Fold these 4 entries.
Entry 1:
Amino acid sequence: MPATLNIHEAKTHFSKIIARVQRGEDVVIAKAGKPVARVVPISSPKKPRRPGSAAGKITFADDFLAPLPESVIAGFEAT
């Protein structure tokens, strides 16, 4: 259950709220007893992509770089 604070408390104790959020808590900010905002931790970013991580896992047909057949080229050039 997230902690609920009114706007005045949130302004007064903002750095404490941020510390709680950094520890993984959710904090709800209320105005006149009605929730209006929620402060939540930002999820961890995904691990950065590592170039070359698929090396050896991808293969190409022997004729991959061969010219396309005329019938295929004609299909692209048709209007």
Entry 2:
Amino acid sequence: MNSISSELEPHYTAKVWIVHQRAAILKRMLHIGIDGRLTYYRTGGISTYIRRLIPALETLDTRNHYTVFHSRKAKDSLVNRFRRAALWTPCHHRLERTALSVELARFRLDVLHSPDFIPPLRGARRHVITVHDLTFLHYPQFLTADSRRYYNQQIEAAVRRADHILVDSQSTRADLIRMLNVKPERITVHLLGVDSRFCPLPPHLLEANRRALNLPDRYLLFVGTFEPRKNILGLLQAYQIVCQRLADVPALLLVGRRGWLFDETMAAIEHLHLSSRVTLREDITDEWLPTVYNQASALVMPSFYEGFGFPALEAMACGTPTIVSDRSSLPEVVGDAGLLVNPDDPAALAAALERALTDADWRAAARRAGLERAAAFTWERTAAIALSVYQQVSEDLCAS
């Protein structure tokens, strides 16, 4: 008996040490860094994710210490309670991973979260990244040559370097497993949230805002970047079909900003003889989007690929019926609250548009279902899952 005890003692001692170390990590304050530099360079998408995740973490986590890294050029601040720090390294520079490693060394981080998925070579004891989508692998033809080269060179190194990966959808999780051979246990899904300002607005306010924005009385709505991935050409073709079938079809309002191959969108509008019916608005700021959603007959998002799809969720939260692609993450966002269509089939999209314009019962049901579904998407839940990952990878320090 004594012999067996003496043989097991080293293993028992090691296990006790691990348990004590784990408890110490859980008790002590972690130093967590979040890379927010991208918000200086871009709006929407990943920048929205960063800008909403940080306040939710500030509310949720009162124990750990956070440093949020800004571009040195940024005038605004992403934080209220967390520490703010400025970095010189620009986003998407060819030497970014090395330069960022040097700049971050002095902060002695336990965990670094890279929301734009590209971690430094060495920036913390543990690295968490968020991969929002793999568009550049699915549809390389939809990117510029420079963008395609940059992302393709970075993604494999990024997923290898990360200790854990957050994703916005089950669709992206499946892509990582299938296309990049990432082990499932290294990936956690945290669906994103929607701001409370996206909600049904009173009629008197809507009418005043409509006049202030000079919006049409009625319109079908697209919100997003004007680029090939968004399938605006398919939307225009479907809209033309509806205009031929129905009288008094509302305008098509495209709200967003120009992307790659924007000239092709303009050429398609001219070719399909839709210039008098289609309105492009690049001047509508984020603060006016709730009004724009509220006024729309339907939100149409026929993208070939989306990592998440904020416009669909925001539209549902405003009580606006949604028509979205049946691809990638969009079915996870919309579920059965909206219409799902094949983005490669303009006729099917036209049928969905026609239903949205003529079926009052469906519109009422879609409004109710969308409001109910959108209520389940909260930034508090997104932040709670992110925090659990920070704690998990920190706990793993003692077991490595």
Entry 3:
Amino acid sequence: MRIVRELVKEGIRISVFSWNNKYLLKFEDGMIEQTFKVSELDLTSEKDIDFFFEGEFWERVKKRSDEMHQMLRNQLGNM
């Protein structure tokens, strides 16, 4: 597995890996982690990965992170 890029955007740590002809896009926000796998064949270059850090996709990553945090808090509160 090769690290392609690491960055932080709006408090979310983003790691991009290359592995088995796929890019793994990992978004970490506190105790929450989301990972997406994208075939290298679906992108023309590594620069195309930036497309996942903007627009509707990015907004949905942030929203899902918030939902996952709430779900975790609720479950921990029910213990």
Entry 4:
Amino acid sequence: MIGRLLAHTQIQTTSCYAYLANESVKAKVSRVGDSIGAHIASAAPA
């Protein structure tokens, strides 16, 4: 679908950009994990 939206005729053209999406997802997952970790740490009994 992405390739069609970008008017790519070869899957290889689209696939060379796939790593950009992966890095974005990894960054967001890391931020969510950090947020959950901070919440757990602040909720732990002293």
